[in-house]
Queue: 3 jobs
Job 1
Amino acid sequence: MWGPEGLDEVEAELLGPPEDLKGKDVLEIGAGAAQCSRWLSAQGARPVALDISHRQLQHALRIGGAFPLVCADAGALPFADASFDLACSAYGALPFVADPVLVLREVRRVLRPGGRFVFSVTHPIRWAFPDEPGPEGLSVSASYFDRTPYVEQDDEGRAVYVEHHRTVGDRVRDVVAAGFRLVDLVEPQWPAWNTSEWGGWSPLRGNLIPGTAIFVCVRD
């Protein structure tokens, strides 16, 4: 799944036709519990699931899967140049780093020529709206152009969660600055079958404003 709307890779084929994934070396960045890698493995690909969170990778280990799990920083990938055919990231890593170009350059470095990187993030327009699923989530409450990070702190003032805002233009410039060619920007529409409501996600909001942005990039 690329996002809460429910767009899946079988339907989207953003990494390519599923039958073409067999034998491909694929890096999943910000893998969490490695859901994407598990699906890729089932298609015959050779995924590697990377996340900075040891706890998330423990969840992946408990669920199981015959592929490597790597605990590392996406801005300093522990792989040789041109190690992978494809890379993907579904809501992983990029929203949580202050310098996304550093991550993108690292991904480009480990991709083989012609390799594709597909990543999804919360659509930047959502930054301007409250994170509410009902009507109150449809009124602009902040500036879309305010790039001040969202930070949650513990009782001792230490940051425990940080999310960085980038406008659509920022994201495009980041991709280009890292040396990628942007070949598609997908904004999934909320499907009629998805009646789920959780957090700030709902059919009400999803039918009116985009929730996910998916960037499809190629290393020429």
Note: The domain at 9-218 is CATH 3.40.50.150 (Rossmann fold).
Job 2
Amino acid sequence: MDIKNKVALVTGGGTGIGRATSLALAERGAIVAVNYSRSKAEAEETVQLIHDKGGRAVAVQADVSRDPEVRAMAEQVRRQFGTIDLLVNNASITRHIPFDDLEGATEQIWDELYGVNVKGMFYCARAVAPYMKKQGLGAIVNLGSIAGQTGLGSSLPYAVSKAAVHGLTKSLARALAPMIRVNCVVPGASKPGGGPAWRRR
């Protein structure tokens, strides 16, 4: 897909993998909506980096685990740029818990991780799908993790949530075909300074 002048929404786009993705899309000519939940300064810095290179970008706040905020964010981007052509579902979180500490994987932690990592990706896909269908073409990329394949990682709930992302991708691909392509990328471990997607949103 030629993405010049296409509108891309990148969740968790202000830091780490999200920032790198936002910058790469802008370099190819896309208009980038950089989503953040708490990392406002980082998102605005990412936008400024894009502007400095002559690109177009805007920072948009929303907690992806909250469906009303996601729908409002999508509508804000549509109002400003006319549509949404691309979605990169990058926002995710983790908690560091030893795998043998089953009691440490509390109900609250399960709910938090599934709320952002799984339900959040579904909410974002659902919110942008009508705009993509209206255009007749769209693309969604979900950020999975090697943890979702190996069962290892920073915590048991995180690994399971990323396995669920892989399953969600397959189901969304069926649900949204043929007009919207849905794929998943599966990064390995990355340095905190260089930015795993789960560090910040």
Note: The chain is about 45% helix and 15% strand.
Job 3
Amino acid sequence: MKINSIKYFSKEAFKNVFSNGWMSLASIFTVVASLMMFGIFMVMVLNINHMMTKIEADYEITLTVDEAYDAEQTEQLGKVLATIPNVSEVIFESKAERMELLRDQFGDNASLLDTYQNEKNPLRDWYKIRCIDLSKSSETVSEVKQLGGVAKVISNGETIRKLTAASGYISRMSVWIMLALTIISIFIISNTIKLTVFSRSREINIMKFVGATDWFIRWPFIIEGMLIGVIGAVVSGVIMSFAYEGLINMFASLQIGFVDFIDLKDIVLVINLVFFFMGIGLGAAGSLISVRKHLKV
């Protein structure tokens, strides 16, 4: 495409956006609404995956050591645990260390535990192990239970598996919903832009009769749609950023432990890039669909 043609198409596109006032504004609001709906589901999926990754990383299988085991046997048990294929990390906590942690949790009331020191400590030594693959945690628990010296195994594997399955289901559903929203958005935007194209159908017909090629006629409309898409993307990005920051602050004030959102600074670039390219794509696709009918002369 020649530089002069690009200048002409761009000039026409900018002129049309501002000369078609309310129509252009309606198209921009349509893009904003479409991108906001898409953005809500995208942010939801990203945060669900982020939370599940954090839960999986923090997941531990805890096992208490038989009281009959001495220090050497307990240490040997730790070495055996480290050889289990799916185990990534083994953390040992003696009953004395556990008591100190418990005293820290009691805070000002730690004196209530003074009678449970040294030989009177009712706690047991235990190991915490972390898995490489959370989906194989049940097999790991089975292997741990078979080891000598293991008095009890504490595992929330079933709950974790249900959360993982639910996360995968939500992610898959959200992808289909976002795809459906994209198709619906293109349809709505094309119909909105179609009103603008219809008002200029006579101009298109004249250009067609004097020998203008289809693409020569299309390009100003495509660039106009892309420009509308970019404006809509900028507006959507600003709204989404403020709304997301407000959501993070609201949940932070509620202090819900398991809710851990991605920081705005880590996601804002992704949101704006997705909005930018989607806005361009939606605007261009809507314009192409809208102008197609009027080129059939």
Note: The chain is about 70% helix and 10% strand.
